[in-house]
Amino acid sequence: MDQLLGKVLAIAFVIEVLTNTIKTVAPDLNRRYLPFISGVLGVSLAWISGVGLLSTLEIPVRHAVLDYLVTGIVTSRGANIVHDLAKTLSSSS
Asked: Residue 12 and residue 93: Cα distance in Å, rounded?
């Protein structure tokens, strides 16, 4: 499980870096679009890397796309929320 959380944290970090890069490159971009952009980046990176929270936690998922969607949403929220999730999961086990 530590490996999973490390992978998810790494993806979240990459998403934060990419989102900040987009903000720098396109300063006139409406800030309302940033959560959508980070969500798309999160789902894309989860899919490309094959990292899925649900399958790793042995939660049965009928379609892998749903697993990547959940993972992408969690990682798109940023490294802080992933760290909080890891802390919660560690204390419950």
From this structure: 23
